[in-house]
Amino acid sequence: MQFDEVLIKIGEFGRYQKYLYFLLCLPVINCGIFMTISVFLLGVPDHRCAIPGYDNDTYKIQSEYHQMLVNKTIPGSSDKKLKYDQCHVFAANTTYDEYSHPNNDTPTLNCKRWVYDETIFKATFVTQVWYCIFKTLTVGYNLTILDRKYAEYF
Which residues span the membrane (predicted)? Predict the structure, then answer.
């Protein structure tokens, strides 16, 4: 007697097998949804440090005066793809050259607040709970942080 003949006698894919298959698929569907939604929740929009003491700061330049303040307080990025340094501001005792640009030896401080480009996303997990170290961590660790922060809301 062959295996195919045994299956025909006992039933190939009956009600019990369908029920068991459905139960086994439920966790896989949830895992797929969780991994897909993380693409949107962990999206990092363009950002820079907020200008200290300037409460109405936005990522988009509002005026020439705002552009001047950004140039005086936010260092340029060493990465060619980025316009501004995303984690540092110039110290308060900054000295400027004759063109009103900070000198190269000016000390920098870590940001305490950021402004984000809101043209694509209004808010993501990263914009709500941002740590500058977040971008250096692995995706698995980021998902662990996301899971913990998400659990705190419930």
Answer: 20-42
Single out the residue of 97, 103, 121 nearest to residue 42, CA to CA: 121
Furthest C-alpha separation in the chain: 95
Question: What pLDDT digit, counting tens, does each position of 59-111 carry?
Answer: 888 899 888 888 888 888 888 888 888 888 887 765 555 555 565 667 788 88
Distance CA(59)–CA(64), nearest Å, equals: 14
| Residues 115/86, Cβ–Cβ less than 8 Å | no
Q: Where are the domains of the chain?
A: 3-41, 47-152
Q: 3-state DSSP call for residue 142?
A: helix
Can you tell me the distance from the alpha carbon of 145 to that of 120, in angstroms, rounded to the nearest whole number?
Answer: 23
Candidates 98, 53, 52, 71; CA nearest to 61 is 71
- Non-local (6+) Cβ contacts of 102 within 8 A are 72, 75, 90, 94, 95, 96
Which pair of tokens denotes residue 7? 């299956």
Question: How long a stretch of residues is the chain?
Answer: 154
The DSSP 8-state label assigned to residue 69 in this structure reads H
34: left (phi over 0), alpha (psi -120 to 50) or beta: alpha
